[in-house]
Structure formats: C-alpha cells, structure tokens
Specification:
By secondary structure, the chain is mostly beta strands. 0% of the residues lie in helices and 61% in strands. The protein has strands at 2-7, 10-13, 18-26, 28-39, 46-51, 57-59, 67-72, 77-82, 91-101, 107-110, 114-119. Strands 2, 4, 5, 6, 9, 10 and 11 form a seven-stranded mixed beta sheet that branches. Strands 1-3-8-7 form a four-stranded antiparallel beta sheet, with no helix packed on it. A hairpin with a 5-residue loop joins strand 9 and strand 10 (107-110).
C-alpha cells in the first residue's frame, strides 16, 4: 500500500504565498520523480512543477519565477512554495510520484488533491 497525502492548501490573497506538502507513505522501496499538477475549475489538469530524485526541476511557464519545488528524500516528501500568487493559480493541486513499492515494480501514484484559492 502506497499513499500520497497533500496538505497546505487554503485561501490566499493575490501577491501572497502558500506552501504545499505531499508525503508518500506505505511499503516504499524508492521514490523517483515527484511533481505537482493543478486543475482550475472547469479546466483540464496541467503540470505545474516536477522534480527528479537528483533535484532536477522543471516548471510550467506560467509559474516560473514564482513557484519553487523541492523535496526531502528522507521523508519521501515534496513541497511547492508558491509566491506572488495570482487568481489564475486557483485550483485543486494534486501530488504525483513515481514510486517503487517494496517487492514490486514502479508505478505512478496520485494524491487526492488540496484546494488552493487565490482572491484578488
């Protein structure tokens, strides 16, 4: 059993900041790449940021310079520091991770999401 649990979502004012966390737990051998996706109301889910096990990062153009993804491998946790928030950042943010469970093959796992609302 592998589980991803997000936290840190909530309300923020435009120009404010939020920090999201996602912890992977369960019978885990290794966590490889991790990332954050978001789904604005009525729109498709999109990649926000990703990070490899070696801390190589990539970002959507819309968040470059404002968001920072990082990870703590000892805790199997990925973070998303969101600064200079804009109303268009509003949406449900989902954590994703490529996980090798103990005694099994690697799979992609999703968290259930955490809502971020940015007011103008």
């Amino acid at each position: 059993q592998v589980q991803l649990v997000e936290s840190g979502g909530g309300l923020a004012q435009a120009g404010g900041s939020l920090r999201l966390s996602c912890a992977a737990s369960g019978s885990i051998f290794r966590v490889n790449a991790m990332g954050w996706y978001r789904q604005p109301p009525g729109k498709q889910r999109e990649l926000v940021a990703g990070i490899t096990s070696g801390d190589i990062t990539n970002y959507a153009d819309s968040v470059k310079g404002r968001f920072t993804i990082s990870r703590d491998n000892a805790k199997n946790t990925v973070y998303l520091q969101m600064n200079s928030l804009k109303p268009e950042d509003t949406g449900v943010y989902y954590c994703n991770a490529a996980v090798i469970p103990r005694g099994s093959y690697g799979m992609s796992y999703w968290g259930k999401g955490t809502l971020v609302t940015v007011s103008s």
